[in-house]
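Recombination protein RecR
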Amino acid sequence: MYEGPVQDLIDELGRLPGIGPKSAQRIAFHLLAAEAADVTRLQEVLQRVKEGVRFCEVCGNVSAEERCRICQDARRDPTVVCVVEEPKDVLAVERTREFRGRYHVLGGALDPLSGVGPDQLRIRELLARIGAEDVKEVILATDPNTEGEATATYLARMLRDFPGLTVTRLASGLPMGGDLEFADELTLGRALSGRRSL
Ligand SMILES: [Zn+2]
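Tokens:
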């Protein structure tokens, strides 16, 4: 334990995902030694990210305006909706250049052990959207891991009630246990074009 603000900084950093106590300590001492201007820049970016970033009212993606660029783009096919866990997954699918539809960002995956149930995700919004818009296909592109599969299975069951709606899942071949974002463009593109009906 260090004294005062240094320990506070280590504690705060240690609460970030993927940062263990050793990394938190290393980053804290890096910041202590850094130029004041560098620390100020980091501080400003952190501030802005909470003040300036909004989430699209339609799809839940990170957005600069009420509606994100993709939802505003009339060239994107509104009849196909790709459901992903996080905004970073939108980027991963976009990188494949295989998809011309719209997205729906859930905000995570079902994980009962961590207290994430259907109400913690944007599932109600998805169902409302499918009921209100002319959606013909929903692609379940949750991560190829236990939580992602459980979420896809749950959604497939919920979506069964919509007449005329096709529900598809990314083809297998994605590295199991990983995040969508870790798949390379080619693999993810193939999984997308080879998606199978559920
Ligand atoms: Zn959007």
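The longest strand covers residues 77-84.
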